[in-house]
## 1
Amino acid sequence: MKTLSLTLAALLATTSLAACGRKAEAPATPAAPAPAATPAPASNAMAGMDMAPADKMAKGVGVVKAIDMAAGTITLDHEAIPQAGWPAMTMGFKIAPALLDGVAIGDHVAFDLKLHDGAGEVTAISKP
C-alpha cells in the first residue's frame, strides 16, 4: 500500500507540473572538473651544465674509529655536519685507499665529503 501511495504521489506531482505548463527538471549532473593548469616550461638557462643535483659537498671533523683498506671504508666519529643535515654520530664512509696513507685509528681528522642519496664518500682527509 505504501508503494502505491508513493507512486501515485509522484504521478500526481508530475501531472500537476505538466498542467501548469512547466517541465519537470532533470536531475542536476555534476559539472566536469576544470582541466589542471599546465605548468610554465622550465628555463633552459642551465642546460648543458655538468651538475648532478643530488650530489653536494660537505666538510666535517671527527676521530677515526676503524679503517678497512680492503673494503675501502673508514669509520668516523664525527661532529655535526650542517651541510648534510646530520647530527654528530659514528658512521662508515667509502674512501679511496690511497687517501688512507698516514691515517690511523684514533687520529683527529678534517675531511671533505661528496654526498649522494643520503650517503657520503670521503674525498679528502687530513690531520689538523
Note: Helices lie at 2-19.
## 2
Amino acid sequence: MIGYTMVGSKDLKRSGDFYDKVLGVVGAKRSMEGDNFIVWSVTPDQPSFSVCLPHDGNEASVGNGTMTAFNAMSPEQVQDIHAIAIENGATDEGEPGERSPGFYMAYFRDPDGNKFGAFNFTGEIG
C-alpha cells in the first residue's frame, strides 16, 4: 500500500551524498531527482525513499517535508482517493494532476494536518 516515504532536508546535496551511500547498501539508486528532491529505488514495484527541500520554503524539521504517499492503480483512483479525503475533512494540498511525464499525483492533509499523497506512476524509472 505504501508507495514511498519522504523526509525534509536542510541541505539536499549533503542528504543526497549520504543516502547514495546508505541506501546503496541495499542496491537502491537515484531513480528521480529535481531541484528540490531526490528519490531512491531498488525496483519500480517496491516502495522508495525520498528527501526534499520543503515546498513551503520553511526550514526542514521533523514533520516539515515528511509525507506518506499511497500507490494508486490508476489516475482515476488518485482522483478518487483525493476526493474522498477532502469529503471526509482533509484539506487540499495539490489537486490531482500529472506532475511529470507518467507521474500522476494529488496531495492532501488529514484532519490532524498530516500530509499525504496518492500517486500513479506509469513512466519508466531511470
Note: The first strand starts at residue 2 and ends at 8.
## 3
Amino acid sequence: MKVIIVEDEKLAAERLQTLLSEYDASIEVIACLESIEETVQYLKKSAHPDVLLLDIHLSDGHSFEIFKQVSYNKPVIFTTAYDQYALEAFKMFSIDYILKPVTGEALATAINKLKSVSVTFSAIDFTTMLPELRGQRYKKRFLGKVGQRLFFINTMDICFFQADNKIVYLVDKEGNRYVVEHTMDSLEEQLDPQQFFRLNRSFIVSIDAIQQVKPYYNSRLKLSVKCVTNQEDMVVSRDRVADFKQWADA
C-alpha cells in the first residue's frame, strides 16, 4: 500500500509515519507534503497513492482546496483537530475522519476500513458520527497575555474576542483584557459555534454576554454586552444578521 501524508506539523507527520509502520511495515509512505500548493503540484505530476492521509487545516488554507485544483478519485483519510469539517469531508472519497491526536487504534481502524471496501468504494457518511464528535474538541481555555504576564482564561469566562490593528484581544466577563496568539479565523474553528458567534471582522461574542439586541442603521443589529460600557463597534454586519438571528434562536 502506497500512502501520501499531507501534514504541515513535522512532529505530527513523523508520528503518522511511525503509526503506519507499526501497523504494517510493508506500507510505503511515498511522500510527506506540507501545503495545498505542494500537494497539488505533486498530484498533477506524479502517480496517485492508494490512500491520501490528509490534514484539513494547512498553513495555506483548508485542504479541500486541493480537490478543486486537481482531479483525484482515490481514498482519503482525513485528520483534524476539529469536528466541523465532517460534512465537507463526506463529499470526498472519505474512508475515515480522525480527530487529533491520532492514535494507533484510530489509524488501524481507518486502514482496515480501506482494506474492506470494494474497488468502487463509496464515501462514508460522517453525519452519523457528528453527535459523538461535536462539542468534545472545542477549546476549554486560552492563554492570555498582559504585558509580560500570562494568564489562563477558561472559555466559559470569555465575554468576547476583538481584532484591533492585527492584534486579537480576549475580554473576560469581568472586563479584563488580554492579548491572545490567535487569528479571528482560527478562533472560529476552535470555539463552540453554539456558544460563540462572529459578528463581523472584528468581534466574536459569547451568547452569555449579550444583554440586549437593538436595530441599527443600514439593516444591521447593535448589541449591548455585559462586560463593557463602550458598545460603538459591537454591531452585527448586514450579511450576518440572518445567521445571527438563527443562532440566537437555536
Note: The domain at 141-248 is CATH 2.40.50.40 (OB fold (Dihydrolipoamide Acetyltransferase, E2P)).
## 4
Amino acid sequence: MNLIIDGDGCPVRDIAVKLAQKFQIPAVIVVDINHQIRDDYATVITVDKGFDAVDFKIISFMESGDLVITQDYGLASLVLSKKGSAMDQNGMLYTEENIDMLLLRRHISKNVRRAGGKSKGPSKRKKEDDLAFQASLNRFLTKIKEKD
C-alpha cells in the first residue's frame, strides 16, 4: 500500500506524511510546477501545470489498495474505480455509497455559480479539523496494518 497525496493546496500534507512514516508506509506527494515541495520522507513528483495534470498522474500510477488523500471528488471517484481508497482533508472516506451524491452536489453548485449565484465555500480551517483528520487517518492505517 502507498499513501498518495494530491499535494496542490493540501492542508494536511505534513500530517499525512508523518503518519505514513510512523506506519512505515511509502508516501508520494504529487504537485504541479507551481508548488515547490521537498520532503525528507515522501517521494515528491512534480508534473507540468495543466487542467487535472496532478489527478491524471496519480491515476496513472496508483494501484488497488493505495490510499489517496484529496479534496477532489472527481479524483476520488477515479480512485474508487481502481479499487483504491480515498480520504478528504477532514478524514472522511469517499465510498461507493457517498461519491455519487458528492459529485451531484458539486455539479449543482457549479451550475449555480455559472448562473451568477453564489454557493457556499469551505469554512476556515481550524486546528480541530487537523486533529479530526489525523485521528481518522490513524484509525485507517491501524486497520490496514492489523490486516497484514
Note: Residues 3-147 form a domain with the Rossmann fold fold (CATH 3.40.50).
